[in-house]
Write a structure and sequence with these properties.
This protein has nine helices and 27 strands. By secondary structure, the chain is α+β, with helices and mostly antiparallel strands. Strands 12, 16, 17, 18, 21, 22 and 23 form a seven-stranded mixed sheet that branches. The chain is globular, with a radius of gyration of 23 Å. The N terminus is likely disordered.
Length: 506
């Protein structure tokens, strides 16, 4: 299966390294050409999602084979008004596999349940897909299983029952079952709360039900609700208070910061909540015991309290809250597959957006409640051997993470290095935004400024990035985006290119 990139008449060879497949990345300007004329005749597509940003419309299509989805295959059309400007994506060619399964849906489910060996898991969905692995195509069942803190995705050979691949799809910050509402009349009020680092918020939007105050914010298009965990069930119980002076600092920060993240995406990009449909934004705090993590489980955000040694309440850092909500944005845009390099791109986007939200609301500097290029520093204790932050975009090596592709992790832990290798990409962002020199390659990059870099990354990752992208594809996608936003061979285009050179991604 050969791989090549179309640039109208210029061909560049790039290989996707999802770990279980090799697709063909393409990108070309439409120039009035018929899309099918530029692609192999046998390739089929089915529309799956429409994204609109201003005058631009981006339509994503899943590749299909005799009506069955080809996992990782995708085409994205980009319109300016009614005019088709460009098309990019990843396709798989020369598929020749039977489409009638030997095993039933039920058979595949039983195989997954046996492998999970945990009664807490439930099966959410099972469907047939074409699954590429090691240059071979398989008819497989994609089985979606979940429990309160896990979302395991399986691919089961529909002929033999072999488990071809599996991965964890819960997006963690580190290596709809929302409870029913009340018929009581609610009044919107403003309260005062104390944050994790002792800060005071006098504009906490909550509701009053006549007897107590509840952490429900109805002042935005989407409701923002903050819950307190009860055991391992989610979301738990809505956080309440008797006098509207809130001292549950973990809940205060989660509630306030979710409002900030909503405002960031809406003000800058017109995005209404994570799905652009103003769905409720749900957070649960006080999850687990000594739990040093936070995650997005596909339906809500969950924050642990830390262990008091490595970290404190995870919701106490604006960039951490923004990181988790940005995973939700990814789920409803590029839907980057959470494994290997595409998963690292998923994590990098969340770190980048988390950093940008921090710079949008907090003054630049070092210390508590200041904007910088460190992740989670407001809740991470300066206690060796843990360091002062979870990750460092300016110098990932401070936490032992790679800053260059030569240093990348190639093992199977961490879903193939989704957190570890994310710093290669987030460091690229630091270089193109702030400017600097990569400590491994010695290549110097002149920054274009945070605002330009932020807008470029948001546009590239939400509108142009295929779900099966690897780092080389990300380079091509961001260059394509820079060319469309600022012009090919513009200063910004050249900065993006030099930035990728600096981190060793070609």
């Amino acid at each position: 299966m050969k791989k090549f990139v179309y640039f109208v008449f210029t061909f560049v060879f790039i290989f996707s390294t999802l770990g279980f497949s090799k697709g063909h990345y393409f990108n070309y300007k439409a120039n009035g050409k018929n899309v099918k004329a530029m692609l192999p005749l046998e390739v089929e597509f089915s529309q799956k999602r429409i994204l609109k940003t201003g005058k631009k419309t981006h339509i994503r299509f899943s590749q299909t084979y005799h009506g069955i989805e080809v996992f990782g295959g995708e085409l994205i059309k980009h319109y300016n008004g009614k005019n088709l400007e460009s098309v990019n994506g990843i396709i798989f060619e020369n598929i020749n596999v039977g489409t009638v399964p030997v095993l039933s849906n039920y058979d595949a489910t039983k195989i997954v349940v046996q492998d999970l060996n945990n009664p807490e898991y439930k099966i959410r969905n099972t469907k047939l897909v074409i699954f590429p692995k090691n240059d071979v195509y398989y008819l497989a069942y994609k089985v979606d299983s979940f429990k309160f803190d896990s979302n395991m995705i399986y691919f089961v050979d529909a002929e033999t029952g072999t488990i071809l691949f599996k991965y964890e799809n819960v997006k963690e910050g580190k290596p709809s079952w929302v409870g029913g509402g009340s018929s009581t009349t609610l009044t919107d009020v403003t309260g005062t709360g104390i944050g994790v680092n002792g800060e005071t918020y006098s504009d906490l939007h909550v509701v009053f039900d006549g007897s107590s105050y509840q952490m429900i914010n109805r002042t935005r298009g989407a409701e923002i609700k903050t819950y307190k965990a009860v055991g391992r069930s989610l979301p738990g119980n809505i956080v309440t208070d008797d006098d509207n002076y809130w001292t549950d600092s973990a809940a205060v920060c989660a509630h306030k910061y979710l409002e900030d993240v909503y405002d960031f995406y809406y003000t800058l990009y017109g995005r209404k909540s994570y799905d652009d449909m103003d769905s409720a934004m749900i957070a649960t705090v006080h999850y687990g015991t000594n739990y040093v993590n936070a995650y997005w489980n596909g339906q809500q955000m969950v924050f642990g309290d830390g262990d008091g040694v490595q970290a404190t309440y995870l919701s106490g850092a604006l960039d951490v809250v923004a990181h988790e909500l940005s995973h939700a944005v990814t789920d409803y845009t590029s839907d980057l597959i959470y494994s290997n390099e595409s998963g690292a791109l998923n994590e990098a986007f969340s770190d980048i957006m988390g950093t940008c939200v921090e710079f949008y609301f907090q003054p630049e500097g070092f210390g508590l409640l200041k904007a910088d290029y460190w992740m989670g520093e407001d809740i991470w204790y300066p206690n060796e051997p843990f360091g002062d932050a979870l990750r460092y975009l300016d110098d990932p090596t401070k936490a032992g993470d790679p800053c260059h592709y030569d240093q990348r992790y190639t093992g199977t832990q961490d879903n193939g290095g989704v957190h570890i290798n994310s710093t290669i990409v987030s460091h690229w962002f630091y270089l193109i935004a702030h400017g600097g020199t990569n400590p491994y390659s010695g290549i110097k990059v002149d920054g274009m400024g945070l605002d330009k870099a932020r807008d470029l990354v948001f546009n590239a990752f939400t509108n142009y990035m295929p779900a099966d992208a690897d780092f080389s594809v990300a380079r091509q996608v961001t260059l394509q985006t820079a060319a469309e936003m600022y012009g090919e061979n513009s200063t910004e285009y050249n900065i993006v290119q030099t930035g990728w050179d600096a981190v060793g991604v070609y």
